[in-house]
Structures are given as C-alpha cells and as structure tokens.
C-alpha cells in the first residue's frame, strides 16, 4: 500500500497555495503560498500597499473573490487597527456581538478579565481610552475561542508606552491560548519581539521568510535581536545606518 510520506502529522492552521487576488486587473496577490502551523505566531511585514491587509481579509473570510487554495480553521477571529466598537452598546455587549446563541454576560466578562478590562465591562465605548478600546476589541476576538487570531496592525494607533503593554499582553495571550496568530505590522521590532517567524511581502508574494531563533522572554538589547532587525529592515529597503554629514 502506498503511503504519503509528505503528509504532515498535524494539518497546518493555515494553508494558502497559488493565491491570486486582483483589483481592476492588477494582481495584488500573485500566486502566493504560505502555511502557518497550529499554535505558531507569524508576523507579516511589507511596504504600504503591498497587500498585507488584503491577505488578512481573505484569511478572515471577508473577501472571497480569489483564485487559489485557502484553508483556514473554522474558529478564527480578527482585530483591526480601529477597535470598531458599537457606540450604542456597552463594552460587554460589544464583546458578544455576532456570537451565536445567547451567551451570558459572564462569558464577556471572562474575556475582558483576560485582557485586564473586567472592571470596564459595563462602560460605554466612548469612555474608554485608545488602549482600553483596543483591549476590548481583543476580548471580542478571544471570546470566539479562535484557533487562528488575525491581527491587522492592532497597536498602530497607540502611543509608545500603551503599545509596549499591548504587545506584552498579546504575547501572554498567545502563550496561554496556544492559538496560531498572524500579526500584520509595520513595526519590525514588534515582529522580532513577538513572532516565531516573520514574513516579508513584496510583489504579491512572500519575498522573505525569517525564523526568529530567540528564546522567550526576548532580550531586545542583544546582538541577535539587532541582527534580525537589521536583516528585515534591509529587505524592506530601509537603511539602518545614518551617514555622517
Ligand atoms: N477593495 C479594493 N478595491 C481596489 N483596490 C484595492 C481594494 N483593496 C485593496 N486595494 C489595493 O490593493 C493594494 C493592497 O492593499 P492592502 O490594503 O492590502 O495593502 P497593505 O499592505 O495592507 O497596506 P498598508 O500597509 O498601507 O495598510 C493597494 O494598492 C490597494 O489600493
């Protein structure tokens, strides 16, 4: 009997093969291939307009006008740069929005506790700070018990200090939950800090794949961190040295 020796022991969380997505006749994603293992944290970098959000929207099931193969877990959740909370619903109701059945408030409160926002469950969205609103948005994703968490620049609009706390929180949530994460970011340091693997998109494909071989918790001051950061910046076309005038 023939056996398929190439078949993986566990199926990947995400399998994308030959994915093409065009807008007005222009292929933004052009025969793109990517796999993400179960429980793996992958960061996606790339110049503005290269198609990162397009890929993420396809994985989220928000865009189906594609060619190619896309296999994703049924349980997946997405958080965007803008928290997208409904202003007329209290925070806990926002967290439960769109969930099937009639989940109880306690379900929302558990997810809010997990992101340190349990005490604001009854608040109106407009009374939240930017960082709190982003955490509420994360709670809304977590309450879906995702096997795949899709994050589209979730920290992009936060100030530096809030951003560091939010990055730490996402790292902790990922370790606790064990779900696969795909994080779209512009921040190379954030990618090296959090990810098992960093992908750089260019020309509609994954142009570089870099494994981050650093132990956790990561030392952002170490030489290997700097080396990885420099390599990724170089691939993104950003110079890491300044010329003396
Ligand atoms: N619905 C759409 N209609 C037409 N063009 C689109 C549409 N969505 C995306 N595009 C185009 O596809 C390209 C990729 O957009 P996308 O938002 O995926 O880039 P990105 O890498 O996420 O950019 P950024 O880093 O600036 O967020 C852009 O040129 C954009 O104008």
TrEMBL record:
<protein>
    <submittedName>
        <fullName>Sulfonate ABC transporter ATP-binding protein</fullName>
    </submittedName>
</protein>
<keyword id="KW-0067">ATP-binding</keyword>
<feature type="domain" description="ABC transporter">
    <location>
        <begin position="14"/>
        <end position="228"/>
    </location>
</feature>
<dbReference type="GO" id="GO:0005524">
    <property type="term" value="F:ATP binding"/>
</dbReference>
<dbReference type="GO" id="GO:0016887">
    <property type="term" value="F:ATP hydrolysis activity"/>
</dbReference>
<keyword id="KW-0547">Nucleotide-binding</keyword>
<keyword id="KW-1278">Translocase</keyword>
<dbReference type="InterPro" id="IPR003439">
    <property type="entry name" value="ABC_transporter-like_ATP-bd"/>
</dbReference>
<dbReference type="InterPro" id="IPR003593">
    <property type="entry name" value="AAA+_ATPase"/>
</dbReference>
<keyword id="KW-0813">Transport</keyword>
<dbReference type="Pfam" id="PF00005">
    <property type="entry name" value="ABC_tran"/>
</dbReference>
<dbReference type="InterPro" id="IPR050166">
    <property type="entry name" value="ABC_transporter_ATP-bind"/>
</dbReference>
<keyword id="KW-1003">Cell membrane</keyword>
<keyword id="KW-0472">Membrane</keyword>
<dbReference type="InterPro" id="IPR017871">
    <property type="entry name" value="ABC_transporter-like_CS"/>
</dbReference>
<dbReference type="InterPro" id="IPR027417">
    <property type="entry name" value="P-loop_NTPase"/>
</dbReference>
């Amino acid at each position: 009997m023939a056996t398929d020796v190439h078949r993986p022991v566990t199926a990947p969380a995400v399998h994308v093969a030959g994915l093409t997505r065009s807008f007005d006749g222009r292929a933004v994603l052009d025969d793109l291939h990517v796999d993400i293992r179960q429980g793996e944290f992958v960061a996606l970098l790339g110049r503005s307009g290269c198609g990162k959000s397009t890929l993420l929207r396809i994985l989220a099931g928000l865009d189906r006008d594609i060619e190619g193969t896309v296999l994703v877990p049924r349980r997946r959740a997405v958080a965007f740069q803008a928290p997208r909370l409904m202003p007329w619903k209290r925070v806990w109701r926002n967290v439960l929005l769109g969930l099937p059945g009639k989940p109880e408030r306690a379900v929302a409160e558990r997810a809010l506790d997990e992101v340190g926002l349990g005490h604001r469950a009854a608040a109106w969205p407009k009374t939240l700070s930017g960082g709190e609103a982003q955490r509420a948005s994360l709670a809304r994703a977590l309450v879906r018990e995702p096997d795949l968490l899709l994050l589209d620049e979730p920290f992009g609009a936060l100030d530096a200090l809030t951003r560091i706390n939010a990055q730490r929180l996402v790292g902790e949530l990922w370790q606790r939950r064990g779900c696969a994460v795909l994080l779209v970011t512009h921040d190379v340091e954030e990618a090296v800090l959090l990810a098992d693997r960093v992908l750089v998109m260019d020309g509609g494909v994954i142009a570089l794949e870099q494994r981050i071989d650093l132990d956790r918790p990561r030392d952002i001051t170490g030489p290997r961190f700097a080396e990885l950061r420099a390599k990724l910046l170089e691939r993104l076309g950003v110079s890491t040295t300044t010329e003396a005038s």
